[in-house]
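Protocol step 4 of 6: record predicted structures for both targets in the notebook before any analysis. Target 1:
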Amino acid sequence: MLLFFVFFQGNLNLARVFWVNKDLLAWNVDAQDGSFFLHASQHAQLQLTGRGIEGADTIIQLEVDTHDLPAEVLERLPHISGYHALRLPRDADCKKLIKCQLAVGASNAYGAPIDASGVQLPGVLDDVLRYDGPLGVTFSETECTFSIWAPTAQNVRLFLYTEPSGGEPEAVIQLDEKHNVWTASGPKDWVGKYYLYEVTVFHPSTLQVEICLANDPYSRGLSANGERSLVIDLSDHNPENWDRLSSEKPMLHCFNDMAIYELHIRDFSARDQTVPENLRGTFLAFSEMESAGVRHLRSLAEAGLTHVHLLPSFDFGSVNEVKEKWKTLDYDRLEGLPPDSEEQQEAVVAIQNEDGFNWGYDPVNWGVPDGSYSTDPNGPRRTFEFRSMVQSINRLGLRVVLDVVYNHLHGNGPSDHLSVLDKVVPGYYLRRNKDGVIENSTCMNNTASEFYMVDRLIVDDLLMWATQYKVDGFRFDLMGHIMKRTMMRAKTALQSLTEEKDGVDGSKIYLYGEGWDFGEVYGNGRGVNATQLNLPGSQIGSFNDRMRDSAIGGSPFGDPLEQGIFTGLSLQPNSLPQGDEENMAKNLARGKDRIILGLAGNLRDYVFVDFEGREVKGCEVLTHDGKPVAYAASPTEIINYVSAHDNETLFDIIMMKVAESVSLEDRCRVNHLASSIVALSQAIPFFHAGEDMLRSKSLDRDSYNSGDWFNRLDFSYETNNWGVGLPPKSKNGEKWLIMRKLLGNESLRPSKDHILAAVANFQDLLKIRFSSPLFRLKTVNAIQARLQFHNTGPAAIPGIIVMSIHDGDEGEPGLLQIDSNFRIIVVVINARPDEGILKVGLLRGFKLELHPVQAASQDELVKASSCDDGTFAIPKRTTAVFVEKRCC
């Protein structure tokens, strides 16, 4: 017996066995000369003793299968490659077994137990018990039908309530299970009532049969804080003329014409005095047509902006939806404190989990608008008000992108109020590692889109937002943690929507997201995932971090002082040692190549002359870790940006990185310079709200929970929110020494004139972009044929990028004419701290003059830019655009 205790490795708290289809289980153990048994207990009585697993109702011997796991299994579960197959007998009743506590025990040739493990079920659920019929609440003229997919449940009951919280249910209805789904029906007058499901199910986290009260995974309405699901007929809660909205939407000819502005709903109006107090921070603030924020959006739309990207606005867990319980700051006191004080962040942090602010990347119920942005979190108001917001933004001339977070969920387990899916089908929706532990590489409770019903739920949810809320696009948080198959299925389903049948033109719905590759999915570890390098040809966009890092410097995970082209690398170094002059010059030249590729849409096949004078394709230029810089097959597969809600604002990161001697005026010019490469690139431009107003968060690098104080947007342009105290210590404390010096320097505080100049310059960039189709070429061939870079190779003047875009002439051979106004456009970007003068021989003979928009600019340095027969003189830190006009 001593040997048994030494070598027995059993642990039922771990689930190292995978039930992969109706016939096979897989386990990474030595299958030679041993016996394997599946143990099942309906009442979760399994336990380990000195004799192995005891307490089973049913014990089934498994046959060792000498073949490798089938290819279709490894396609779905590539991380268990090399596991041994264990075959079930043909008469095993898998539909009954999966409702039990399960464990597999292994014995040696002498019958002594050597190992035991719990079982992961997603594979067999997908193989045998997936479901394609109606889910959620559906309606006929007389009935409501409730349907929930819960194949592992031993029982499901419906609790029906009159009130949004408290009290006993007015009715308890037993659901029937058939065709892999539990259902019940009731009268149509149940609309407006609330409900929960009582799910009796074995839960692997507790090894017990639990009785869970859960919201409907297909909820379309909720009471405050998701206490209960709401029986809601979405067709009953439309703003006036809602059914005509599709035909009223602003024109979008193709995705190349997009320009996106990323905005947080609460930031937009929380401190806007021109919005009624009860509407600040809500969906309805967007309907206040004369508010400062709405006027700002209208001016951006008139300049050429096409889409507003709203940070998560579905039900999330981090803000109490009962506003009366929110704690607030004493703004008058905080505004009187020094700009580099610690007191502001202390006050913010003290209430940060009890105020009304959070970014919302902690989803609970994907299919319902969040109640904290509604005037009433109970009942149907949140539905009506979200629709009113979409309608109002559309009427401003802007389409709406919804930021969706399908890669993780807030809660898990059988008792957490913020757990939903893990109560209904425990161990299925959340991705687990080889031991059965929930993966958390995305910060919390990763979801598993590789499984059929998770994939289905995501696609169903997207279709609901598109048809019921008329959302125009979707941005996917940590899209690389979602399978490419799911993304492609979503794109196909959405773009097949038609106005005639669905009230929506799906061909205008665009998908993009964060294509980062890390965690358990890295290198296609769970299947082909939706990462940058896997998406070429998909027509799904991904963020281009290569341009951002080269322009601004470093990465979000590097030294905050590391410089890029626009922040002074080699040209005006700061105090951080960044190599000797030769190395800095080489890094400057490499960064310029990456920006060139970004300007060309980051296309893998675009050919240009690199800094060494070689003619190379974009995919042949490599990042520091050996990956291709350029990877897209189409310009609409790239989202170019230099700032987003993550990390410091553009203004703040510039303030950190530039040399101490750089004046405030020049720092503001760097902000504009960085925005210009995004606005004038061939990819889809993306801007962080306030980037156009020198927005600051007082140097906060991660303001997701930093309250209205650090996240303030001021559409009166009186302040950019710089110098409102040291940012929260937990995320920024190690940099406080650097920050104090900056925040305490009053000469670095922008005035209203600085902010207004930035607003005007930014809108000029949008006007220039939309003044010519040459900035929005649609194909790789068109970009290769028309787009040319000058001042390249080893003899190039450092820090200056010259880009020409050529049009053809009607009736002449060669390029087709697509621009009726300009024959050629030349963009010169001078990142140097001094004037740049250069001759471009290939541009001699063109009659170039400053673009009409810039000729009328209030920026004197832009207006001072000149071109004389191929010789350009561009003031410091300036982007100048020249055109040759066609004759009238």
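Target 2:
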Amino acid sequence: MGNHQLLSVTVVLAAVQLTSSYSFRNCIAEADSDGKTFNCMHRNAMHISDIVSDLPPSAINLTILRTPLTDLPNNSFSNLVDLQHLRIDNNSLTTIRQLAFQGLYQLKNLNMSLNKISALNPSLFKDLQNLTSLFLANNALERLPEDIFSSVLKLHTLILRQNFLSDFSGIAKSVAHLTNLTTLDLCFNNLTSLRHSNVSLPQSLTVLYVCHNNLLTLGCKPSFLSFINILDLSYNSQLPTKAFDQIDLSTINYLHLRSTNVTIVEFLNISNINPSHVDFSGTGLNNDSMLKELCILLKKRLKEKNLKNMNLGNNAIRQLTNNTLSYCPNITGALDLSRNNLKSAYCLEFLRRHVYIEDFKAEHNHLSSLIYCKKMFQFKKMENLSYRYNRILKVDSHAFYHTPNIRTLQLNINSIAFLHIHALKGLKKLETLRLDNNLLTDLFSVTFEDLVSLQILNIRNNRISVIFNRTFFNLTFLNTLDLGGNKITHFQRSGLDGLKSLSKLYLDGNQLKQIDPFLYRAFQDTLTVLDLQSNQICFITETHESPFMNLSRLTDLKLDRQRPNGLTVLPRTLLRGLYSLKSLYLTNNNIYHLAPDTFDDLTDLSFLTLDNCCVGVKKLEPGVFKNLRNLTRLAAENMGIQNFSKEVFGNLTQLRLLQLNRNAMQTLSVDALMSLPMLRYLDIRDNPVSCTCNNGPLQNYTKNNTDVQVVYLYNLSCQHNPKLKFYNFDTKVCRGDIGMYLFFSTSAAIFLFTIIPLFYVKLYWKMKYSYYVFRAWFSEQWSRFHEEEENCKYDAFISYNSSDEQWVMDQLLPNLEGGGSSFKLCLHHRDFELGRDIVDNIVSAVYSSRKTICVVSRNFLQSEWCSLEIQLASYRLFDEHRDVLLLVFLEPISERQLSSYHRMRKVMLKKTYLQWPGSDCTNPTQAQELFWNQLRRGIKTGTRLETEEYSATRESKEAEDFTDERSDENFYLQP
């Protein structure tokens, strides 16, 4: 397969992968980058394909850091054709294949620093036609192929520092044709000279760093550096002065010669460089005589009378006398005396002749005090003064009176324990004051009284415990006050009065135990940032009023990491009134309950972090985020959350980034996720997500949702088996909620086992009859069941038990078929069809006869077939509204004996029955004659019942009522 075919296939596969799941195995897409910026850091992937194969072709920025990658094979990034910025630094790369970057025609920045690359293929950058920046620092390169940069003609920055390059001529050849190259960094290599063959550096090159090499000479043509503006040759300890002989340095704007063997005065004498463009730091100018000689030369060489900037740092200067710098041209810009051995600043008396100086630095020296300077010469043009990183213990009264117009004063990172109450006297134009990282314990009301223009005051990391009344009273223009990292336990009632313009107040890392609302009254309409993290604030009970109620413009509030046990109680009223708040930090507390109305007033909140805030809060209450409709980012890591519901998160309609990693959730509601229409980033790592059917919808959501990135989904393991992965656990057995199915199936089984015996007792014959009717219908008998009366074959079907057959043959047949009665009767032993199923015969007999006469005896009641016959007849009686059933009792049977024959009792309650008069009655002959007359009349009566009569029959009284009202021909006849 050709390279282009491989590229096409790879792109298609990547596109398919993206449409099936917006998640990546080893990368994270930045939340607000619209799928264009990816970070792949701290991964264990051994092959580049494991990292980039599932990234979309739309990727523009890619960072791969701290992985065990050792090799970049051909076509490593062929699926990322739009890539513009690629960082693969700080890995373990040793080999880069010739076609590793093939197809990256849009790439502009490539960083391969901090690897173990020892060689580069000449064709490596062939396709990188738009490359502008290349970083190869901290590798093991010993040489560069001559044509390696032949295709990257737009390259303007090339960083090759900290390798093992020793041949400058080869480097010059490789970059000679780069007509757009502006910056070349060769520091920390093994170069011994700048000697080269008949090539020149590109004239576009203006910045050349060759520091920390082993240069013994320059060895280049005089014009070789004629277009360089910035040249760093520092830390080439063997580089001599004579190396610059005849070298054209006229275009140099900055030359750094620190820690070389160059004698600076001799160098200036043989060089055509502008002396004001030389950095004199670290050039061995450590005594007055050398400085005096330099100053005289500078004054001679400079055509202008003034010197813009002068850097004398790192020269081990111990002191400067009043005359040392008086021979120098007037310094109008900055003088830097940092990293020397100065022990005193002497109120800057050594600068007395440089009245126009604007910026003075004496950082990293040995200054121990700043003395009284009220009566000293004033430097009225000075604007910036820095004594950082010294050993200053005390600052005396009027210590800066000689610099009345400075705007920035930096005294931070010293050991100042004593700041005189008038130390800052006279600094009425001061705008920024740094006193942080000292040993101050007290601030007084007059300390800052003259700083009427101060805008930024940093007193962080001192030992202040109390802020006294009116300490900042005159600082009406102060915008930022940083008191963090002190030991402040309380403010006196007027401690913050006067701060009418304060916008940012940092009180973190103190020992405040409560929040006093009266402190903020001076700046309640201006404060936007309030940092209270890492204090000792703790609420025992609910508060009645919010201490922030009047901070109407507050946008950032930090309450995280309260000591020692955190905010165990978060009062429901604490955040009332913060309608403008944008960011809220509550991390690293131990809140045990979040009330549903805790965040109700934060309607403008866009960022909320609750990481590690609520250990023990296993369930967030519904409505807790109900008013946070503008929230775009929610960090809820390690809160102990056990569920994720729509009732809790459903109102976060603008949420884009949601971090839920390291919680206790076994399931996530897809309905809740679907209620977040703007969600683009979801982190659920390190949750005990179960690979069960309950999470089947979640798995489907992660596979098919192309809008939400689920961070490292493919690394998410199943709770019960870490070797199984959540994204592909088997859901084929899930057709729904198996637990629900088991519940309903078990319930149904229990219900059936309970109700079937009842049905068996009550409806046995009804069901059996229905079954037989169905069988008859199936065998094409159904049409005969519903024939009209005139088409019936028999007048009556006689249902009797075989033990009563003699009575039927001796009494019934002669009286109904003989003696002029002429009824046609159906008897089973005579009229049933031979060879036919007995059930079919019974059904046919019942429905082919206008009446069914049941000859009831105790034997009859015990016969299954007789029961079926009476069931069929009673069905026609009750369900088809046909008066077809006649009951004839051959012997007296008590009601108790009939109680188990439900259908027969029902018939007896609603129909007339006949009792055969035995020989023991008074007049048996007359009684039997009456019996046969009644039976003949019953047979002759029509079978179709009127609706009203039938309804009345169904609502008739109990048998006892019937026996009391025997006046009708249908009464029970008991002769």
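Step 5 preliminary note on target 2. The two ends are 111 Å apart (CA to CA). Confidence is low (pLDDT under 50) at residues 1-21, 779-790, 945-975.
Proceed to step 6 after PI sign-off.
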